[in-house]
Amino acid sequence: MATHILLVDDDDLLRRSLAFNLEKAGYRASTAANAEDALALAQRDAPDLIILDIGLPGMDGLEALQHFRAAVGVPVIFLSARRREFDQVLGLELGADDYVTKPFDFDVLAARIKAVLRRTQKSNTLSIEPAPLTIGDLFIDPLSHTVTLHAQAIDLPPREFDLLYLLALEASHVISTDEIIARVWGAEYAGEPQVVYVHMRWLREKLEDDPNRPRRIVTVRGVGYKLEPQAV
To answer: What residues have CB less than 8 Å from 85, skipping those under 6 apart?
Structure first.
């Protein structure tokens, strides 16, 4: 699976641009505009690395760093428009793995990301594999890329599998269409909800008793979708 990077910055244009470039570079990118949303996202879908702006609204990046360390324990690269050396020293003393000052060239950031990931991968002797999920009568194993329903194998192409696994990770919770696009297709598909509609239809045809009246993959009108467990 692609390395998952969580980008936390309140600048909408920067988030979109950087997420797009991260996806082009082969990473899976998630984004959040504030630390509170980022912490909730990280606990649902743990990243491999966090790019964290210092000057966030509400909880700032320096405070958020401590919460991320306690919650997910992954490497953090700080972004900041502040040029004071104090911020850099303080950030690194608090446990950030690197520091990049805005404005920056993406190639510079990409090199820092690779360096931090290399260091942390060398220091980690254990790797955490994605866990199989059982949602009612549905079993999903991301390692073998298999899905079984009522103990019968269901053949899903990669994108449909990724979509189902995302819904299963947050079973019974609504995931917005925009978040689905960002986490399954990537930033380049932003603003193209039809790709989600089509794949949801295909999934329902394979998993629902009546695809026209779905009970498993439920649409929450104006919000998104959720996967509801069905009795075994």
So the answer is: none
Residues in the chain: 232
Are 136 and 148 in contact by the 8 Å Cβ rule? The answer is no
pLDDT at 188: 58
User: Cβ(64)–Cβ(38) under 8 Å?
Assistant: yes
CA atoms within 13 A on the CB side of 94: 22
Would you state the structure tokens that stand for residue 193, as one six-digit string? 């909800």
Q: What 3-state class would DSSP assign to 39? A: helix
pTM of the model: 0.55
Each residue's pLDDT tens digit, 56-106 = 888 888 888 888 887 788 888 988 776 554 455 555 656 677 778 888 889
Contact of 77 with 49, CB cutoff 8 Å: yes
DSSP secondary structure, 60-113, as one string: -HHHHHHHHHHHT---EEEEES---HHHHHHHHHHT-SEEEESS--HHHHHHHH
Distance CA 11, CA 94 (A): 24
Phi, psi of 172 (to 5 degrees): 75, 0
Give the chain's domains with CATH numbers: 4-123 (3.40.50.2300), 133-227 (1.10.10.10)
Structure tokens at 129: 């594999």
Question: What values do phi and psi take at 7, rounded to 5?
Answer: -105, 125
